[in-house]
Amino acid sequence: MTLEIAVAAALFIGVLAYALFGGADFGSGFFDLTAGGAARGAEMRSQIDHSIGPVWEANHVWLIFCLVTWWTGFPASFAAVMTTLFVPLVLALAGIVLRGAAFAFRKYAASIGQARVYGAVFAGSSLITPFFLGAVAGAIASGRVPAEGYGDRWSSWLHATSVFGGVIAVGTCAFLAGVFLCADAERAGHDRLVASLRRRTLGVGAATGLVVFVALVPIQHDAPTLAHGLERQAAPLIVVSGVAGLLTLLLLWRRRFRVARISALVAVATVISGWGVGQYPWLLVDEVRIADAGGADATLVGLLVAVGCAAVVVLPPLVALLWFTQSGAGTTGPGGPRRRTGAGAG
Amino acid sequence: MVSVLAEPAGLLPAREQMALSLGWHIVLAAFGVAFPAFIFVVHRRGLGGDPVALRLARRWSKVAAVLFAIGAVSGTVLSFEMGLLWPGLMGRFGDVLGLPFAFEGLSFFTEAIFLGLYLYGWDRLPARLHLWCLLPMMAAGVFGSYCVLAANAWMNMPTGFTLTSSGKVTDVHPWQAMFNGRAFLQFAHMWLGAYMLVGFVVAAVYAAGRLRGRDDPHHRLGLAVPLRFASVAAILQPVVGHILGMALGDIQPSKLAAFELATTTEQPAPLRIGGLLINGKAEGYLEIPKWGSFIARGSFSKPVRGLDTFSPDELPPINTTHVAFQAMVGIGTLLAVAVVIYWLARWRGRDLADHRWALRCLVLAGPLAVLALECGWVATEVGRQPWTVFGILRTVDAAGDNPGLWWVFSGVAVVYLGMTVGAWMVLRSMARRWRAGEEELPSPYGPAPEEVAR
User: Model's pTM, two decimal places?
Assistant: First the structure.
């Protein structure tokens, strides 16, 4: 394995982690947005706050990890993407900023009126960000980013692959969020909430699965290199994704939410990996190969040292945080001590 | 090269946007660096059996939750902007200066994880373990700010690579770039600056409370802890700043000339306090003979190189650089003198914080510390112009050529204004509800529970 491939693999692990964990946080915006009015949606919104509150910042750092690894490891291709896909990246960034700020403000908002404003911003921007990041992925995967950068600022992402990429990103985020929220709500004993979440997650999951497989058709001529890879080296991943997706729907149907979390992660992880493996060996499809994109060797080695440090220093506490919040250790349900005050336990 | 260089469309708005987003984020970054230490002190005291301190730790951790959230997203903006606004820098030098950013990412990770554990851990984690969650955050603050300052120091004194005659970057040594000779001093300067900013700002909040008649153990502790941190930092800062500045004459003589408003080379050079450059002449300053040489070069006889020895296209905007630098030094000196007076009085058995005038000064010290930090960044960043990588890459060549940047800048300005107003309103309302005895601050997701129950 060359240095370039090793760094690209580390970068892709970051993309995958962000898509799964960051994605599940963004996806909760869909359920927040569709939870209904203040009275009806209070239970759902409290659950969402409880579920993503402690973890969203940590999950968000995967994006920073991806950015710094990319510009340090493959600097020229980073600049090429940033100059070409300026518009979707700015819009995704706007979503990131508004989502994070509004989420934090809503938690401590003074009144229900203010909380509704912040909540609407939080939920709306939670959908914007995955869409535009998905569109960026679609543009890279369909060969729209020229190696020297400054590709067309509009046509580079306004095409079938990017649009499908965006829709799939929103759908997979919402699907993951739904499955995790089902498990959280069940553990907290909120039966009515579980029923509503289960219904919606089944719908989102079925629709997203359908879109993923429908997208394979326009990709044939819109992104031939990716389509070629998907039919060959990435084909097993697509099959696994389909199986895991159906299994998740079945588990949701049978109310086996805890297990469904795992199959949902597998289903989404294989979709994302399908894209990555499908476009291999290209970093920017049809333009730059991974092997030719690397920065200085000494820097790639340094990056791998940083990644190694991260694996030792960051992963154990990250796992501890996710386990601690997912297992609900030391608490009885959403709100924890807050629940005593009665708020949100609609 | 004196002719007017063709400026890309992206240059001016990119500069404005970078200044706005960096200037905004740096305040929150300072909180990320210094605030965990403050919380640690009061939390530890609280575990020792002081309920006032424990309540303060709980409240501060809620404030930290809000500030760190907007700090995380405004930091992300900067990451994106490195590529969106400065593709010429990142595309060409990404693998030279990228490594410290990679390690900064690592410390950001640590900070976010332990922040999550700490906030979620109240009443859930064992008390000691919970308190210790703050220690990795403090360590991440030190390491992370070193990394960012290392990258910035590299831009001031580029090293760790060779340029071929055609301008290609070869022979890259990323570790040399990351541990460059200026990095540690720049880090120390910023680290102390962060403790000054957060210390004086938090002390100002409680000083304002006492001025409004809330003279209770809660406000006394809330003032005492940050004031101690700020005092130590404010007294050390002039020393560190001076040592950092002494090498400037060798590394960035054009920046030094602008700092000192030195129109011509003088040996020894006077210290010029105040003043502006008007039509090429320095005017309206107060002159102290020889002291310019001593402060800038560490000797009463060494020369300070004058602005007239540089080609005009190698000079930064003089007045902005000069005024920002002197404002930073002036405020820093003022704050250092003020805390020395305060602690001398304390030593003599008098607490000046019992006097309203002293509390008023403390309220003023908060915004002044923010202003000093901002001026410091303006001085170093504007003073580096017209270079992004000093002597190597001009800012015109680092900028992209994007015609839509003014729209983006306007959007950014609106969003940041909104975030400022939002944060202000939320923090004010938290304080109001705390004063009303509402300790837990339940989130208002729905109408009051009794209404729902009906």
Answer: 0.92
